[in-house]
Specification:
Elements lengths: L12 E3 L2 E2 L12 H7 L10 E2 L6 H12 L3 E5 L14 H9 L4 E6 L21 E5 L8 H7 L5 E6 L19 E5 L14 H14 L3 E5 L10 E2 L2 E3 L7 H4 L8 E3 L2
Parallel strand pairs: 1-4, 4-5, 5-6, 6-7, 7-8, 8-9
Antiparallel strand pairs: 2-3, 10-11, 11-12
Length: 262
């Protein structure tokens, strides 16, 4: 089950506390949020607005997960950035909702890793057990984002290399320690624009580095218009995802769940 029209096998749900963002780097050029909003003349994708009618959904998901004795993942702020300064007035409410939903594993990704430390809640400590902090880097010159995030204490750090715009290796090997999950993909263009060039070898190099480091690797898709470019890399579907249950995850070595495809 997905929410907010989020179509990804990596996450059970998607939830936006607020929407709107600002292009920060090359990877943002064809961001699906901007492309979708820019084709709606009544919206301004650069205006950050709090969502007002959906905050009850995570509480419903929490009740369902708790009753089933399960954990579910939630990809947060797919239409924004959780650590945008414009959202400072609302973030305490977001942290409160996260605390109320211990069976939901909140996956918070931000390109603005330099802003995270001063925007964590006072009771953060070594990190909430149900929050994974992530970032992305589409080009080598942005690998410093990984270094910034590594300084932040948290339950799990993850990476979303999307869209890959160049080969990040071998430099990536100097920045990836301390991360427990890696996603990689090309660009889709979301049927609005032509995707930028993507070489599957870039994803292979990340896959091989993750295998060497024992990090679960998830290959989202290659490059191509639409939301369903091929997820197969060298005849294999890579679905590596860490266990959501914190008790199971603690002390568990990383790995890659793979599905062989004929």
């Amino acid at each position: 089950m997905k929410s907010n029209n989020h179509n990804s096998l990596q996450h059970d749900y998607s939830f936006n506390f607020w929407i709107g963002c600002h292009r920060l780097s090359a990877g943002c050029k064809n961001c699906y949020m901007f492309l979708a909003q820019e084709h709606r003349p009544w919206t301004n994708p650069n205006e950050v607005k709090r969502c007002t009618s959906t905050w009850g959904r995570p509480l419903k998901w929490q009740r369902e997960a708790e009753q089933a004795g399960e954990y579910k993942s939630v990809f947060a702020c797919s239409y924004s950035d959780f650590f945008l300064p414009e959202a400072d007035g609302w973030r305490d409410d977001a942290w409160a909702l996260i605390r109320q939903t211990p069976n939901l594993i909140w996956q918070l990704a931000s390109k603005r890793t330099h802003l995270i430390a001063e925007r964590l809640p006072k009771d953060w400590g070594d990190g909430y057990k149900n929050v994974w902090l992530g970032t992305s880097a589409e080009l080598k010159k942005y690998l410093s984002r990984l270094d910034n995030l590594r300084k932040i204490p948290c339950t799990l750090r993850w990476l979303d290399f999307a869209p890959l715009l160049e080969d990040l290796t071998p430099e990536l090997s100097e920045h990836i320690d301390g991360f427990a999950w890696v996603n990689a993909s090309g660009e889709t263009g979301c049927n609005y624009v032509e995707p930028r060039p993507f070489d599957p070898q870039w994803a292979r190099n990340i896959r091989d580095l993750c295998s060497k480091k024992g990090i679960p690797f998830y290959y989202s898709h290659g490059s191509g218009k639409g939301r369903s470019p091929a997820r197969i890399l060298d005849g294999v579907t890579y679905n590596g995802i860490p266990p959501l249950n914190p008790e199971v995850r603690e002390g568990k070595p990383g790995g890659c769940e793979i599905v062989m495809t004929a």
